[in-house]
Amino acid sequence: TLLTIPYEIRHMIYLEIPYLxxxxxxxxxxxxxxxxxxHPLSGICRQIRAEASEIYYSSNTWLIKxxxxxxxxxxxxxxxxxxxxSVQALRFLHLSLRGPLFYKSRARPHIHDLELERKFSRAxxxxxxYSIDLxxxxxxxxVEIVSCLGGRExxxxxxxxxxxxxxxxxxxxxxxxxxxxxxxxVVDEMLEICGWW
Length: 197
Known about the structure:
Strands 1-2-3-4-5 form a five-stranded mixed beta sheet. It has one domain (2-194). By secondary structure, the protein is an alpha/beta fold. The N and C termini lie far apart (51 Å). The chain has seven helices and five strands. It is 45% helix and 16% strand. The chain has helices at 7-16, 46-59, 69-81, 84-89, 114-120, 152-174, 180-194, and strands spanning 26-27, 61-65, 92-99, 126-133, 142-149. It comes from Aplosporella prunicola CBS 121167.
């Protein structure tokens, strides 16, 4: 049986199974397998489910969309549905934010105060997506701007804030203590800064 094979070989086998490791970021609310919410391997036995889930959550990039409340609600439902081992396995995230802070105005190019920027741009929205790497490769994690449709200066400022939160996540992950509430807290704090819906 599969369980009698050494783990290293099982790991190589898992990597060859379709839909376990994807090339494109996965959106938590639409990542299904032929209409099913879980990969077929999750129904075999606990050990295989645990091993396959670890690869699934650690090898794929998860896109956290927060542009609209329904996306955020989907994220909260998804992250809370994961067991602690799956949350702990998360390594690669993309966080998409939409808010007035990203709006670029030619009339006021030198405003650097975030609160002032928010007040002036209340009706203007734009988008920025950040990549978050929580792997062991980068001490304290790594944050990069993947795309920015709006004010680059504000996106860079928020990147620095996000790096502080990611450092905290990375430290918890390194200790095996990262939980769903920790990931949700980072998302909530970024939304608090850039603006909710």
